[in-house]
Amino acid sequence: MLQSQLFTKTRKEAPKDEVAKNAELLIRAGYIHKEMAGVYSYLPLGLRVLNKIALIIRREMNAIGGQEIFMTTLQNKELWEKTGRWSDEKIDNWFKTKLKNGTEVGIALTHEEMLTAIMAEEIKSYKDLPRSAYQIQTKFRNEARAKSGIMRCREFMMKDLYSFSRDEKEHEAFYEGSKEAYKKVFEGVGIGKVTYLTMASGGIFSKYSHEFQTLTSAGEDLIYICDKCKEAVNKEVIADFKNACPKCGNTKLREEKAVEVGNIFPLGTRFSDALGLQFLDEKGEKKSVVMGSYGIGLGRLMGVIVEVFADEKGIVWPKEVSPFQAHLVSLAGEDTKVKKSADELYKKLTEKGIEVLYDDRGLRPGEKFADSDLIGIPLRIVVSAKTLEADGYEIKDRATGATELVKEDVLLKIFK
Protein backbone atom coordinates (compact mmCIF):
# COMPACT_ATOMS: atom_id res chain seq x y z
CA MET A 1 0.00 0.00 0.00
CA LEU A 2 1.22 3.48 -0.86
CA GLN A 3 1.19 5.62 2.25
CA SER A 4 0.35 8.65 0.11
CA GLN A 5 -2.94 6.92 -0.75
CA LEU A 6 -3.78 5.94 2.84
CA PHE A 7 -6.62 8.26 3.86
CA THR A 8 -5.70 8.18 7.55
CA LYS A 9 -3.11 10.56 8.93
CA THR A 10 -0.96 10.39 12.03
CA ARG A 11 -1.48 13.03 14.68
CA LYS A 12 0.56 14.40 17.54
CA GLU A 13 -2.25 14.21 20.10
CA ALA A 14 -5.22 11.97 20.88
CA PRO A 15 -8.66 13.29 21.94
CA LYS A 16 -8.45 15.08 25.29
CA ASP A 17 -11.01 12.74 26.88
CA GLU A 18 -8.94 9.63 26.01
CA VAL A 19 -6.65 8.48 28.81
CA ALA A 20 -5.90 4.83 27.94
CA LYS A 21 -2.47 4.37 26.35
CA ASN A 22 -3.73 1.78 23.87
CA ALA A 23 -6.45 4.06 22.49
CA GLU A 24 -4.24 7.16 22.52
CA LEU A 25 -1.58 5.45 20.39
CA LEU A 26 -4.03 3.67 18.08
CA ILE A 27 -5.89 6.94 17.42
CA ARG A 28 -2.68 8.92 16.87
CA ALA A 29 -1.31 6.28 14.50
CA GLY A 30 -4.56 6.13 12.50
CA TYR A 31 -5.70 2.63 13.45
CA ILE A 32 -9.02 3.55 15.07
CA HIS A 33 -11.47 6.45 15.30
CA LYS A 34 -13.28 7.26 18.53
CA GLU A 35 -17.02 7.65 17.91
CA MET A 36 -17.93 8.13 21.56
CA ALA A 37 -16.93 6.72 24.96
CA GLY A 38 -16.47 2.97 24.58
CA VAL A 39 -17.26 2.94 20.85
CA TYR A 40 -14.51 2.87 18.21
CA SER A 41 -14.36 2.40 14.43
CA TYR A 42 -11.51 0.36 12.96
CA LEU A 43 -9.77 2.16 10.09
CA PRO A 44 -7.71 0.43 7.33
CA LEU A 45 -4.60 -0.23 9.45
CA GLY A 46 -6.66 -1.24 12.48
CA LEU A 47 -8.84 -3.61 10.50
CA ARG A 48 -5.76 -5.34 9.07
CA VAL A 49 -4.57 -6.04 12.62
CA LEU A 50 -8.01 -7.18 13.73
CA ASN A 51 -8.30 -9.54 10.75
CA LYS A 52 -4.90 -11.09 11.50
CA ILE A 53 -5.95 -11.72 15.09
CA ALA A 54 -9.16 -13.30 13.80
CA LEU A 55 -7.18 -15.52 11.42
CA ILE A 56 -5.06 -16.89 14.28
CA ILE A 57 -8.14 -17.50 16.42
CA ARG A 58 -9.95 -19.27 13.56
CA ARG A 59 -6.96 -21.52 12.96
CA GLU A 60 -6.92 -22.76 16.56
CA MET A 61 -10.71 -23.05 16.95
CA ASN A 62 -10.92 -25.06 13.72
CA ALA A 63 -8.09 -27.30 14.95
CA ILE A 64 -10.15 -28.45 17.96
CA GLY A 65 -13.24 -29.11 15.85
CA GLY A 66 -15.00 -25.77 16.07
CA GLN A 67 -17.38 -25.00 13.20
CA GLU A 68 -17.75 -21.33 12.37
CA ILE A 69 -21.20 -19.79 12.21
CA PHE A 70 -22.64 -16.27 12.37
CA MET A 71 -25.69 -15.64 14.54
CA THR A 72 -28.01 -12.65 14.65
CA THR A 73 -27.54 -9.61 16.84
CA LEU A 74 -31.26 -9.33 17.65
CA GLN A 75 -32.26 -11.99 20.18
CA ASN A 76 -35.55 -13.66 21.05
CA LYS A 77 -36.94 -12.56 24.41
CA GLU A 78 -38.74 -15.92 24.88
CA LEU A 79 -35.48 -17.88 24.88
CA TRP A 80 -34.06 -15.69 27.62
CA GLU A 81 -37.25 -15.98 29.63
CA LYS A 82 -36.97 -19.77 29.52
CA THR A 83 -33.50 -19.62 31.07
CA GLY A 84 -34.59 -16.96 33.57
CA ARG A 85 -32.10 -14.41 32.32
CA TRP A 86 -34.34 -11.84 30.59
CA SER A 87 -35.15 -10.07 33.86
CA ASP A 88 -32.07 -11.23 35.77
CA GLU A 89 -30.78 -8.23 37.72
CA LYS A 90 -27.26 -9.67 37.61
CA ILE A 91 -27.20 -8.94 33.88
CA ASP A 92 -27.39 -5.17 34.19
CA ASN A 93 -25.39 -4.28 31.08
CA TRP A 94 -27.78 -5.48 28.40
CA PHE A 95 -29.14 -3.30 25.60
CA LYS A 96 -32.79 -4.07 24.83
CA THR A 97 -35.15 -2.49 22.32
CA LYS A 98 -38.58 -2.87 20.71
CA LEU A 99 -39.55 -3.59 17.12
CA LYS A 100 -42.15 -1.44 15.36
CA ASN A 101 -44.83 -3.97 16.30
CA GLY A 102 -43.95 -3.67 19.99
CA THR A 103 -42.04 -6.97 20.26
CA GLU A 104 -39.19 -6.76 22.77
CA VAL A 105 -35.80 -8.04 21.64
CA GLY A 106 -32.34 -8.18 23.12
CA ILE A 107 -29.23 -6.86 21.41
CA ALA A 108 -26.53 -9.55 21.59
CA LEU A 109 -24.11 -9.60 24.48
CA THR A 110 -23.73 -13.41 24.50
CA HIS A 111 -25.29 -16.32 22.61
CA GLU A 112 -25.81 -19.33 24.91
CA GLU A 113 -29.59 -19.28 24.55
CA MET A 114 -29.64 -18.80 20.80
CA LEU A 115 -27.14 -21.54 19.93
CA THR A 116 -28.70 -23.97 22.43
CA ALA A 117 -32.05 -23.52 20.65
CA ILE A 118 -30.38 -24.11 17.28
CA MET A 119 -28.64 -27.27 18.53
CA ALA A 120 -31.93 -28.57 19.98
CA GLU A 121 -33.09 -28.92 16.36
CA GLU A 122 -29.86 -30.57 15.19
CA ILE A 123 -28.81 -32.90 18.04
CA LYS A 124 -31.03 -35.91 18.61
CA SER A 125 -28.72 -38.87 19.24
CA TYR A 126 -25.46 -39.63 21.03
CA LYS A 127 -24.08 -40.06 17.50
CA ASP A 128 -24.54 -36.30 16.98
CA LEU A 129 -22.11 -35.52 19.81
CA PRO A 130 -19.69 -34.04 20.63
CA ARG A 131 -20.05 -30.78 18.70
CA SER A 132 -18.68 -27.27 19.00
CA ALA A 133 -19.51 -24.08 17.13
CA TYR A 134 -18.10 -20.57 17.27
CA GLN A 135 -18.54 -17.16 15.75
CA ILE A 136 -16.67 -13.88 15.50
CA GLN A 137 -19.34 -11.24 15.90
CA THR A 138 -20.03 -7.77 17.24
CA LYS A 139 -21.34 -7.72 20.81
CA PHE A 140 -22.94 -4.87 22.75
CA ARG A 141 -22.71 -4.23 26.49
CA ASN A 142 -24.23 -1.26 28.27
CA GLU A 143 -21.22 -0.57 30.47
CA ALA A 144 -21.90 2.00 33.19
CA ARG A 145 -18.47 3.49 32.56
CA ALA A 146 -16.52 2.67 29.45
CA LYS A 147 -12.80 2.88 30.15
CA SER A 148 -9.43 1.39 29.25
CA GLY A 149 -9.71 2.31 25.55
CA ILE A 150 -10.51 -0.66 23.32
CA MET A 151 -9.96 -3.07 26.22
CA ARG A 152 -13.43 -2.34 27.63
CA CYS A 153 -16.03 -1.17 25.13
CA ARG A 154 -19.78 -0.87 24.74
CA GLU A 155 -19.49 -2.31 21.23
CA PHE A 156 -16.79 -4.85 20.44
CA MET A 157 -15.79 -7.85 18.34
CA MET A 158 -15.77 -11.19 20.13
CA LYS A 159 -15.07 -14.81 19.40
CA ASP A 160 -17.48 -16.99 21.37
CA LEU A 161 -17.38 -20.77 21.08
CA TYR A 162 -19.83 -23.20 22.69
CA SER A 163 -19.24 -26.92 23.21
CA PHE A 164 -21.85 -29.69 23.42
CA SER A 165 -20.95 -33.04 24.99
CA ARG A 166 -22.62 -36.31 26.05
CA ASP A 167 -21.37 -36.21 29.62
CA GLU A 168 -18.97 -34.51 32.01
CA LYS A 169 -16.05 -36.73 30.97
CA GLU A 170 -16.44 -35.82 27.31
CA HIS A 171 -16.91 -32.16 28.23
CA GLU A 172 -13.78 -32.19 30.38
CA ALA A 173 -11.72 -33.57 27.49
CA PHE A 174 -12.83 -30.72 25.24
CA TYR A 175 -12.39 -28.17 28.04
CA GLU A 176 -8.76 -29.24 28.56
CA GLY A 177 -8.19 -29.14 24.81
CA SER A 178 -9.55 -25.61 24.69
CA LYS A 179 -6.96 -24.52 27.25
CA GLU A 180 -4.19 -25.65 24.92
CA ALA A 181 -5.90 -24.02 21.93
CA TYR A 182 -6.11 -20.72 23.81
CA LYS A 183 -2.44 -20.93 24.75
CA LYS A 184 -1.64 -21.32 21.04
CA VAL A 185 -3.78 -18.29 20.22
CA PHE A 186 -1.90 -16.09 22.68
CA GLU A 187 1.45 -17.46 21.56
CA GLY A 188 0.33 -16.84 17.98
CA VAL A 189 -0.40 -13.15 18.56
CA GLY A 190 2.88 -12.66 20.41
CA ILE A 191 1.87 -12.45 24.09
CA GLY A 192 2.26 -16.09 25.12
CA LYS A 193 5.20 -15.43 27.46
CA VAL A 194 3.25 -12.91 29.55
CA THR A 195 -0.16 -14.64 29.55
CA TYR A 196 -1.20 -17.04 32.32
CA LEU A 197 -3.97 -19.60 32.71
CA THR A 198 -5.77 -18.30 35.80
CA MET A 199 -8.28 -19.92 38.14
CA ALA A 200 -11.25 -17.60 38.62
CA SER A 201 -14.82 -17.47 39.82
CA GLY A 202 -17.39 -19.22 37.66
CA GLY A 203 -19.95 -16.51 38.39
CA ILE A 204 -23.52 -17.66 37.77
CA PHE A 205 -22.45 -20.74 35.81
CA SER A 206 -20.16 -22.75 38.08
CA LYS A 207 -18.01 -22.40 41.17
CA TYR A 208 -14.82 -21.91 39.18
CA SER A 209 -13.81 -21.04 35.64
CA HIS A 210 -10.54 -20.23 33.92
CA GLU A 211 -9.29 -16.93 32.57
CA PHE A 212 -6.24 -16.10 30.51
CA GLN A 213 -4.59 -13.06 32.04
CA THR A 214 -1.85 -10.97 30.42
CA LEU A 215 0.58 -9.05 32.60
CA THR A 216 0.47 -5.28 32.09
CA SER A 217 0.59 -2.17 34.25
CA ALA A 218 -2.78 -1.24 32.69
CA GLY A 219 -4.33 -4.33 34.26
CA GLU A 220 -7.70 -4.21 36.00
CA ASP A 221 -7.16 -7.48 37.88
CA LEU A 222 -4.74 -8.78 40.48
CA ILE A 223 -3.50 -12.31 39.96
CA TYR A 224 -1.16 -14.52 41.96
CA ILE A 225 1.33 -16.45 39.83
CA CYS A 226 2.87 -19.79 40.74
CA ASP A 227 6.33 -19.82 39.18
CA LYS A 228 6.50 -23.59 39.65
CA CYS A 229 3.34 -24.40 37.66
CA LYS A 230 3.31 -21.28 35.47
CA GLU A 231 -0.38 -20.88 36.28
CA ALA A 232 -2.20 -18.30 38.38
CA VAL A 233 -5.16 -17.57 40.65
CA ASN A 234 -7.37 -14.50 40.48
CA LYS A 235 -7.50 -12.41 43.65
CA GLU A 236 -11.27 -12.98 43.86
CA VAL A 237 -10.77 -16.70 44.62
CA ILE A 238 -7.28 -16.89 46.15
CA ALA A 239 -8.75 -17.19 49.67
CA ASP A 240 -10.64 -20.31 48.58
CA PHE A 241 -7.29 -22.02 48.14
CA LYS A 242 -5.77 -20.72 51.38
CA ASN A 243 -3.44 -18.40 49.44
CA ALA A 244 -1.75 -21.35 47.75
CA CYS A 245 -1.52 -22.64 44.19
CA PRO A 246 -4.50 -24.99 43.62
CA LYS A 247 -2.39 -27.15 41.33
CA CYS A 248 0.77 -27.81 43.37
CA GLY A 249 0.17 -26.19 46.76
CA ASN A 250 3.00 -23.67 46.42
CA THR A 251 2.46 -20.78 48.84
CA LYS A 252 5.12 -18.47 47.38
CA LEU A 253 2.96 -16.73 44.83
CA ARG A 254 3.83 -13.57 42.93
CA GLU A 255 1.24 -10.76 42.78
CA GLU A 256 0.88 -9.00 39.42
CA LYS A 257 -1.52 -6.66 37.63
CA ALA A 258 -3.11 -8.23 34.58
CA VAL A 259 -5.86 -7.93 31.96
CA GLU A 260 -8.18 -10.79 31.07
CA VAL A 261 -7.80 -11.64 27.37
CA GLY A 262 -9.92 -14.81 27.31
CA ASN A 263 -12.14 -17.00 29.47
CA ILE A 264 -13.60 -20.50 29.47
CA PHE A 265 -16.64 -21.62 31.48
CA PRO A 266 -18.24 -24.98 32.20
CA LEU A 267 -22.01 -24.51 31.80
CA GLY A 268 -23.25 -27.96 32.82
CA THR A 269 -26.84 -28.62 31.70
CA ARG A 270 -28.35 -25.29 32.77
CA PHE A 271 -29.18 -24.13 29.23
CA SER A 272 -29.89 -27.54 27.74
CA ASP A 273 -32.38 -28.33 30.54
CA ALA A 274 -34.17 -25.00 30.09
CA LEU A 275 -34.34 -25.14 26.30
CA GLY A 276 -34.89 -28.86 25.72
CA LEU A 277 -31.49 -29.78 24.29
CA GLN A 278 -31.54 -33.55 24.88
CA PHE A 279 -30.30 -36.65 23.10
CA LEU A 280 -30.95 -40.38 23.18
CA ASP A 281 -27.99 -42.34 24.56
CA GLU A 282 -26.90 -45.87 23.56
CA LYS A 283 -29.65 -47.33 25.77
CA GLY A 284 -32.33 -45.12 24.24
CA GLU A 285 -32.59 -42.96 27.35
CA LYS A 286 -32.97 -39.18 27.17
CA LYS A 287 -30.05 -37.16 28.53
CA SER A 288 -29.32 -33.45 28.70
CA VAL A 289 -26.35 -32.16 26.73
CA VAL A 290 -23.41 -30.86 28.80
CA MET A 291 -22.19 -27.45 27.61
CA GLY A 292 -19.25 -25.07 27.85
CA SER A 293 -18.59 -21.47 26.80
CA TYR A 294 -15.29 -20.00 25.56
CA GLY A 295 -14.66 -16.32 24.77
CA ILE A 296 -11.94 -14.02 23.42
CA GLY A 297 -12.42 -10.31 22.75
CA LEU A 298 -10.51 -9.38 19.58
CA GLY A 299 -10.41 -5.64 20.17
CA ARG A 300 -9.44 -6.15 23.78
CA LEU A 301 -6.64 -8.45 22.66
CA MET A 302 -5.43 -5.81 20.21
CA GLY A 303 -5.44 -3.17 22.95
CA VAL A 304 -3.53 -5.43 25.33
CA ILE A 305 -0.85 -6.08 22.70
CA VAL A 306 -0.37 -2.32 22.39
CA GLU A 307 -0.18 -1.89 26.18
CA VAL A 308 2.37 -4.69 26.56
CA PHE A 309 4.81 -3.74 23.79
CA ALA A 310 4.49 0.02 23.14
CA ASP A 311 7.40 2.28 24.00
CA GLU A 312 7.91 6.04 24.25
CA LYS A 313 7.95 6.38 20.44
CA GLY A 314 4.74 4.52 19.72
CA ILE A 315 3.29 1.09 18.95
CA VAL A 316 5.49 -2.01 18.59
CA TRP A 317 3.59 -4.81 16.83
CA PRO A 318 4.61 -8.45 17.07
CA LYS A 319 5.21 -9.62 13.49
CA GLU A 320 2.26 -12.04 13.65
CA VAL A 321 -0.38 -9.29 13.88
CA SER A 322 1.34 -6.29 12.33
CA PRO A 323 -0.73 -4.63 9.58
CA PHE A 324 2.25 -5.00 7.22
CA GLN A 325 5.44 -7.03 7.28
CA ALA A 326 7.63 -4.08 6.36
CA HIS A 327 7.55 -0.29 6.27
CA LEU A 328 9.47 0.90 3.21
CA VAL A 329 10.60 4.50 3.67
CA SER A 330 11.90 6.45 0.69
CA LEU A 331 14.15 9.46 1.39
CA ALA A 332 14.17 10.48 -2.26
CA GLY A 333 13.34 14.15 -1.96
CA GLU A 334 14.14 15.45 -5.46
CA ASP A 335 16.53 12.55 -6.20
CA THR A 336 15.02 10.59 -9.08
CA LYS A 337 17.51 7.72 -8.69
CA VAL A 338 16.44 7.12 -5.09
CA LYS A 339 12.77 7.29 -6.06
CA LYS A 340 13.30 4.79 -8.89
CA SER A 341 15.18 2.40 -6.57
CA ALA A 342 12.49 2.60 -3.88
CA ASP A 343 9.71 2.10 -6.46
CA GLU A 344 11.48 -0.95 -7.87
CA LEU A 345 12.02 -2.47 -4.44
CA TYR A 346 8.35 -1.95 -3.57
CA LYS A 347 7.35 -3.72 -6.77
CA LYS A 348 9.70 -6.67 -6.12
CA LEU A 349 8.52 -7.12 -2.54
CA THR A 350 4.83 -6.97 -3.37
CA GLU A 351 5.26 -9.36 -6.31
CA LYS A 352 6.73 -11.86 -3.85
CA GLY A 353 3.63 -11.54 -1.68
CA ILE A 354 5.31 -9.47 1.02
CA GLU A 355 2.98 -6.99 2.71
CA VAL A 356 4.56 -3.53 2.49
CA LEU A 357 3.47 -0.06 3.53
CA TYR A 358 5.46 2.22 1.23
CA ASP A 359 6.05 5.75 2.53
CA ASP A 360 6.30 7.58 -0.79
CA ARG A 361 5.21 10.91 0.70
CA GLY A 362 7.19 14.10 0.18
CA LEU A 363 7.95 14.71 3.84
CA ARG A 364 11.20 15.36 5.72
CA PRO A 365 13.11 12.27 6.94
CA GLY A 366 12.47 13.10 10.60
CA GLU A 367 8.71 13.22 10.04
CA LYS A 368 8.76 9.91 8.19
CA PHE A 369 10.80 8.18 10.87
CA ALA A 370 8.57 9.52 13.65
CA ASP A 371 5.48 8.24 11.82
CA SER A 372 7.14 4.88 11.23
CA ASP A 373 7.93 4.51 14.94
CA LEU A 374 4.39 5.51 15.89
CA ILE A 375 2.75 3.06 13.46
CA GLY A 376 4.98 0.29 14.78
CA ILE A 377 5.55 -2.10 11.85
CA PRO A 378 8.30 -4.58 12.91
CA LEU A 379 10.80 -3.92 10.09
CA ARG A 380 11.68 -0.57 8.52
CA ILE A 381 13.51 -0.49 5.17
CA VAL A 382 15.14 2.81 4.23
CA VAL A 383 16.13 3.74 0.69
CA SER A 384 18.31 6.87 0.40
CA ALA A 385 21.24 8.30 -1.53
CA LYS A 386 23.50 6.91 1.19
CA THR A 387 22.14 3.37 0.88
CA LEU A 388 22.40 3.51 -2.93
CA GLU A 389 26.08 4.40 -2.63
CA ALA A 390 26.53 1.30 -0.46
CA ASP A 391 24.50 -0.79 -2.94
CA GLY A 392 22.06 -1.89 -0.23
CA TYR A 393 19.23 -0.95 2.08
CA GLU A 394 19.15 0.10 5.72
CA ILE A 395 16.87 -2.07 7.82
CA LYS A 396 15.79 -1.30 11.37
CA ASP A 397 14.14 -3.60 13.90
CA ARG A 398 11.32 -1.61 15.54
CA ALA A 399 11.45 -3.59 18.80
CA THR A 400 15.21 -3.51 19.42
CA GLY A 401 16.22 -0.43 17.43
CA ALA A 402 19.03 -2.41 15.80
CA THR A 403 20.01 -1.21 12.31
CA GLU A 404 21.91 -2.96 9.55
CA LEU A 405 22.87 -2.31 5.93
CA VAL A 406 21.97 -5.32 3.78
CA LYS A 407 22.07 -6.31 0.13
CA GLU A 408 18.86 -7.05 -1.74
CA ASP A 409 19.29 -10.84 -1.67
CA VAL A 410 19.75 -10.79 2.11
CA LEU A 411 16.69 -8.57 2.50
CA LEU A 412 14.52 -11.00 0.54
CA LYS A 413 15.78 -13.94 2.62
CA ILE A 414 14.60 -12.19 5.80
CA PHE A 415 10.98 -12.56 4.66
CA LYS A 416 11.40 -16.22 3.73
Please give a structural write-up.
The chain is of the alpha+beta class and 416 residues long. The radius of gyration is 25 Å and the shape is elongated. It has helices at 21-28, 44-63, 77-82, 112-122, 168-188, 235-238, 270-275, 298-309, 336-351, 365-375, 385-389, 408-415, and strands at residues 32-36, 39-42, 67-68, 74-76, 96-98, 104-107, 131-140, 155-165, 195-201, 208-215, 221-226, 231-234, 254-268, 278-280, 286-288, 290-297, 326-330, 356-359, 379-383, 393-397, 403-406. The chain is built from twelve helices and 21 strands. Strand 14 and strand 15 (286-288) form a beta hairpin. Helix 1 (21-28) packs across helix 8, helix 2 runs antiparallel to helix 5 (168-188) and helix 2 crosses helix 8 (298-309). Strands 9-10-13-11-12 form a five-stranded mixed β-barrel. It has a five-stranded mixed β-sheet with strand order 18-17-19-20-21, with helices on both faces. The model has no long low-confidence stretch (mean pLDDT 95). 40% of the residues are buried. The chain folds into two domains: 3-309, Bira Bifunctional Protein, Domain 2 (BirA Bifunctional Protein, domain 2, 2-Layer Sandwich); 326-415, Anticodon-binding domain (Rossmann fold, 3-Layer(aba) Sandwich), CATH 3.40.50.800.
